[in-house]
Amino acid sequence: xxxxxxxxxxxxxxxxxxxxxxxxxxxxxxxxxxxxxxxxxxxxxxxxxxxxxxxxxxxxxxxxxxxxxxxxxxxxxxxxxxxxxxxxxxxxxxxxxxxxxxxxxxxxxxxxxxxxxxxxxxxxxxxxxxxxxxxxxxxxxxxxxxxxxxxxxxxxxxxxxxxxxxxxxxxxxxxxxxxxxxxxxxxxxxxxxxxxxxxxxxxxxxxxxxxxxxxxxxxxxxxxxxxxxxxxxxxxxxxxxxxxxxxxxxxxxxxxxxxx
Length: 260
Ligand SMILES: Cc1cc2nc3c(=O)[nH]c(=O)nc-3n(C[C@H](O)[C@H](O)[C@H](O)COP(=O)(O)O)c2cc1C
Prior knowledge:
This protein is of the alpha+beta class. The protein has helices at residues 45-48, 71-84, 128-135, 163-172, 175-183, 193-206, and strands spanning 14-16, 54-56, 92-98, 104-110, 113-115, 118-124, 138-145, 150-160, 219-233, 241-247, 253-257. Flavin mononucleotide binds next to strand 4, strand 6 and helix 3.
């Protein structure tokens, strides 16, 4: 639902200049102003020109009086609406970290849990992001809900979840994903695809389907405790709504409106 009670949908946005709708055309639909999407080589230069892609965003706004008292409740509402809209993987978020010299890096991860304590994802602690978070816990999470002209940006600090929480989640993963967590020394170089597949095959032999796979010591969760959470709603004429919650010293939240 939108703040006014409607469920948002990609069709709520319209398109000009041969660009995509805010939700993007379905793979089987012909692109506006171009040939079928399954023959990308046949697209003309105008259709592919990013400067000419201009989605018009919806008119419904986000006002201070619509907001929930805290960002977790507001996130829960928008997350439910993103899910109801049919967006693919609304729990996918861009996680940005920086090394000790301040050099940033980003990647997509999946949100697996959220509550008043923060936003949780799981990964390999020895990965690039894991190493960067060890050196510098500041992190940004961005939910790119383009299909409904919204984005949410969380900024805060990450800390490892407890081992019990990691193990409890690991047990819920499909068997193949559990083996994959063992097989991949995430972010390190591997000589070939063959080597990776061979490692997986050895593990599948050691832990056949149905057998308990222990959680690797180097694998686990991070909980991001937000300092700020921004809710961005696309509006017409690029006059978007941006409302940002900031944590106060007494543990409450204040909200500020930012220029788009
Ligand atoms: C849709 C999507 C979801 C992903 N989810 C995760 C995830 O939950 N955890 C994870 O470690 N990597 C996930 N990845 C892979 C990461 O984007 C990334 O390649 C990997 O974590 C290594 O990143 P790093 O070398 O920067 O640490 C996902 C990738 C995509 C495209």
